[in-house]
Design a protein that fits this description.
Blueprint lengths: L3 H6 L5 E3 L8 H9 L4 E4 L6 H14 L4 E6 L10 H11 L3 E5 L7 H6 L3 E6 L2 H10 L3 E5 L14 H11 L4 E4 L5 H9 L4 E4 L1 H4 L8 H9 L5 E4 L7 E4 L2 H11 L4 H8 L1 H10 L22 H23 L1
Parallel strand pairs: 1-8, 2-3, 3-4, 4-5, 5-6, 6-7, 7-8
Antiparallel strand pairs: 9-10
Helix pairs in contact: 2-3, 3-4, 8-14, 11-12, 12-13
The protein binds flavin mononucleotide (FMN).
């Protein structure tokens, strides 16, 4: 397959794995990249820069294909902002690709570009994509309202957002939000995207270390299993609709501020629940596409099936339109 995205990144298939905080580690990213997609590890999963450096080495031990480091730049809920340190690790390691999200990567672009690092910036609205393009990013990811994680405040789904982006952006465009199989990939290409990012689908890859109880819960989940929290902070997050999410919504309804909400949405509680295998106690980002996922598969098979199914979808479309 050839699109502007495969050409830009030197990858075989236009499929990017979502940056799953704590869960997108080297075994997953390495497997995705080795299978021809773009694997991503997430800087936010590490407290020490040296741990991120070690994880980059672990990806390189699995594959010599391109991979990315995600740098989420949303303001930290607590403690100092670690973004500068993460950028420095990426620069000194000369990682092939950096994916940024959360706020403009403008201040870091000159150094990243000088090091030959490709930068993808992920946003939930075309206007933010346009400003990232003006700042000089190499590609823009647009995530629609279906997506796991942060879909923005506009409430625009991928079916409208992606062609709006394709009309207005000139850099390669990656579509995200609800893409969980080959039908989604074919649709994204039809809407004018050059590739896709799949987060929720890769959360249920064999290489992700996810407690069996959480896996069971997610496999049983349908497209109604998510909800939006943190709207009161003007920072929507699409997450599994569980006890923690409902607790968060109740607090928000009572007018709780960030200090109070931190007890529920703060990373420590979510990570603890993930490790214990308690699907109720922690906030877990999750997209509506979870309803399309029926089994845990190795990352390479997810990619192969997605490509095969996209080709079937395109053949179907050709027949329908002939
Ligand atoms: C469990 C989980 C954790 C995520 N953590 C991050 C993150 O730390 N940084 C980030 O930029 N995106 C994060 N995302 C969003 C994905 O990178 C991607 O944009 C999104 O999952 C795409 O939509 P989809 O879930 O419909 O495939 C996360 C998604 C999930 C499901």
């Amino acid at each position: 397959m050839q699109t502007r995205l495969t050409q830009l990144l030197g990858i075989r298939y236009p499929i990017i794995q979502g940056a799953l905080q704590w869960l997108a580690r080297a075994p997953l990213a390495g497997a995705v990249s080795a299978a021809g997609g773009l694997g991503i590890i997430n800087a936010k999963s590490f407290t020490e820069p040296e741990d991120l450096r070690a994880e980059i080495a672990a990806v390189r031990a699995i594959t010599d294909r391109p991979f990315a480091v995600n740098i989420s730049m949303l303001p930290e809920l607590a403690g100092p902002d670690p973004v500068q340190q993460w950028v420095e690790v990426c620069l000194s390691e000369r990682v092939p690709v950096v994916e940024t999200a959360g706020r403009s990567p403008k201040e870091f672009l000159p150094a990243l570009k000088q090091a030959g690092i490709k930068v993808i910036h992920k946003v939930p609205a075309v206007r933010f994509g346009l400003s990232a393009q003006r700042a000089g990013v190499d590609a823009v990811t647009l995530v629609g309202f279906e997506c796991g994680g942060h879909p923005g405040m506009d409430g625009v789904g991928s079916l409208v957002l992606i062609p709006r982006g394709a009309d207005q952006l000139s850099v390669p465009l990656i579509a995200g939000g609800g893409v969980a199989d080959g039908r989604g990939l074919a649709a994204a290409l039809a809407l004018g995207a050059d590739g896709v990012v799949m987060g929720t689908r890769f959360l249920l890859a064999q290489e992700v270390e996810l407690h069996p109880a959480i896996r069971r819960r997610l496999l049983a989940a349908d497209e109604l299993a998510t909800t939006l929290v943190m709207g009161s902070l003007r920072n929507n997050a699409r997450v599994l609709n569980n006890a923690a999410a409902r607790e968060c919504l109740e607090l928000e309804a009572k007018g709780a501020g960030i200090e109070e909400l931190r007890g529920v949405i703060g990373g420590g509680r979510g990570l603890g629940a993930l490790r214990r295998g308690d699907p109720e106690d922690g906030i877990l980002a999750l997209g509506q596409g979870v309803g399309l996922i029926e089994e845990i598969l190795p990352a390479a098979q997810i990619i192969e099936r997605t490509i095969a199914q996209a080709r079937e979808s395109l053949a179907r479309m050709q027949q329908a339109l002939a």
